[in-house]
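My main concern about presentation is that the manuscript never shows what a single data entry looks like. For the editor and my fellow referees, an illustration may be useful. For illustration, here is how one protein appears when written out as sequence plus structure tokens:

***
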Amino acid sequence: MCSAIRTGILVLSALGGSLAFSADNSGVQIKELPDRLRIELNGQLFTEYFYKNVPRPYYYPVMGPGESPMTRDWPMKSPPGEEHDHPHHRSLWYAHGLVNGHDFWSEAKGFGKIVHDGFQEVKSGDKTGVIKSKDKWVAADGTVVCTDERTFKIYAPSSPSEKMFDFQITIHAPDHEVVFGDTKEGSMAIRVAESMKLKGGDGHIINSEGVRDDKTWGKNAEWCDYYGPVNGKTLGIAIFDAPSNPRHPTSWHVRDYGLFAANPFGKHDFEKLSDKSAGDFKIPAGKSATFSYRFFFHEGDEKQGKVAEQYRDYVKSLSSGQ
């Protein structure tokens, strides 16, 4: 990218998409760095999008209300007191552990990589910012199993007590069928800050059905909320499952140690079924499937954060096309 991007001038990418970076500090600003994009809200860091030379694209750190870090640092950094489990839990990401037999979730021997394939649009704005990108899911043997298109839409905060963004991914099957296999290891995921954990922290989990804490694992719900203390205040992360998503309401791979993921593909794990293919999700050759989510970062527990009301507003916004 040329230096003109840094001045906020609109340029065209090699793929024909547009990239427009903000020249001031108001609203949502997206700035180019050598190996990532930096997303700021009113001049303050919200997150950075890492997409070069990584096992899969991810967002780190993720700053909630009061500029508090909502995700753990490991494995990007190694601060004292953090658990060093699951090195593939990189802050906030999308991946899956069984796609046509290939593992795109872990970073164990022979894992597949999700490789950035270009930006279609990068746009700052007073009210919203947008990153549209393309990726290839490449198996360890070099086979391109599938491709995706992602849209990350971040909103300028209307209140210091909340932040939110939308994430949409469309998975394309090439000239062969793509099967997202039945495994708990997936998919739309965030690893919460250590102090927020249910086990070893002071956090709590609740879903839209009123199920709480460790009983939420594997259950279906329209939304799920993980909240706990960060920097002396109670903060929460809610993930909303769009009604248009396949298998809505999704099941949740949400763990007491801090993993928090929407996964509609883990039926045999979550329901303890003998049929290990019960949750297989098939995309026919040449077809695609789209999944949409909203992340809502708030102060307080789910009641103080008005998570249920926020979910209803999200559904209304989808139906009105906003």
Q: What stands out?
A: DSSP finds two helices and 20 strands in the chain.
